Amino acid sequence: MIWAKRRLSSDEYIPYQEKFGPLMRAQKSRCHEFVMVAVDGDPTGAGEYYVGVPDELSLRLFDGFSRVNEDELPEAVDKVLVAGRTNAAVVTRFKLRRC
User: For the chain, where are the alpha helices, taking DSSP H only?
Assistant: First the structure.
């Protein structure tokens, strides 16, 4: 899985989240490899958004996102925005912070 991150405001993430639907429908056998999570940042709603995709071609759709190594991912996230129902990457990789 390829991971990337970008700092976005509270509503800037929406166009990127919307890209996952067509990607997951086009690659049904790999839909468990698509992930989007976020770590809240400051009171304005800006935060770090992380995407996980299975290949370079999919990553090209996420302009402005910078690749990160898996060891650079946060241990805990505030939001899970995209994840397949049986997505082990989310279940085993991230702890979900409580509201």
Answer: 14-18, 20-26, 56-59, 88-93
